[in-house]
Amino acid sequence: MGKGEELTTTKYLIHAQINANGIVEKPDVVGAVFGQTEGLLSNDLDLRELQKTGRIGRIKVDINSNGGRSKGEIVIPSSLDRIETAILAASLETINRVGPCEAYIKVLKVEDVRAVKREQVVNRAKEIYKGMMETVTPESIKMIEEVKEAMRIHEISEFGDERLPAGPSVHTSDAILVVEGRSDVLNLLKYGIKNAVAVEGVNIPQSVAEMTKHKTVTAFVDGDRGGELILKELLQVGEVDYVTRAPRGKEVEDLEKEEIMIALRDKAPVEQIFNNVKPKVQPKIEDKVTLMKNIFNDIEGSGTGEILDDTLNILKEVKVEKLYDELKNANEEVYAVIFDGVISQRLVDISSSKGIKNLVAFKTNNIVKRPEKLRIITSN
Known about the structure:
Blueprint: H1 3-9, E1 12-20, H2 26-37, H3 47-52, E2 60-66, E3 69-78, H4 82-92, E4 97-98, E5 101-112, H5 113-134, H6 138-155, E6 157-159, E7 164-166, E8 175-179, H7 182-190, E9 196-198, H8 206-211, E10 216-221, H9 225-237, E11 242-245, H10 257-265, E12 268-269, H11 285-299, E13 304-308, E14 314-319, H12 323-328, E15 336-339, E16 342-344, H13 345-353, E17 358-361, E18 363-365, E19 375-378
Parallel strand pairs: 8-9, 8-10, 10-11, 15-17, 16-18, 17-19
Antiparallel strand pairs: 1-3, 1-5, 2-3, 4-5, 6-7, 11-12, 13-14, 13-15
């Protein structure tokens, strides 16, 4: 067998270590490998026959003698399948003599030549790709992005009489994502999510409201005040099954793939969402206290505060340090203030003067005067 042929047909390399109590040389080892495995296995796996038919390559032996002992490595190229190669490797360990000397052979590993080649291909491909990218100019990158954007726009379709921006699967899918705008639909298309439809504003279109009655609907809203308003409206006119939000302060159109996948994974049944209370439907007082505590748990550690109406829908979200100034301008709609901080006498006084009914925070600090109509709730 020529060297080139052996290289192209070899699938595995059997690596074995040999130790002999005496001085032995390569021909002795090769002779022992052929001689002592002969007749051990079926004719199909006889080493001499396998070598004649080219299914194993030339046996390579590298052995050194030192101090009256010999140690070395045996390498056998194999084009047999995985099981046959393993049997052949195991048969080497039955050899107990080389020439006149006692010997011991241990298989170290069976190397998958194709896996090594694949790794070489991948590593080389990475180098080639890196070289290609180094030659791409900023203008070329811009062109590539423009083409990608054009492809996404081409993929976008329309839904309903209002011709709403939608992914191509909205018409056929049983599960629908309802988002705010066209940019949200495009961003989801970018990552292969094709079942989104945009309501394009707070007033929910009739076609979307009707569709929610027949399909499994997830509202995927921005993590800001606008997202809350759209969700509130959608809950009034449609039938939503699940709700999920972009991370606080972010919009769906700006999310990376991982953020989108996490949001969709963490969607919650609409019954579990604390602001799934339609307008004019008042929760019981004891339920409100529990809900307000839950809201505090959600925002704890965020450094923010939420100003809520009497159905515990968010009117405004503010940083804790700006809370006092915000309450100075508050109107009669404010029912509760929940914030990640400490309730001071100053906050109690302003809340009382504005007719606010509930203050919820981590703890209080030096409250001397407690107004009768103001409920103070703390987590500690």
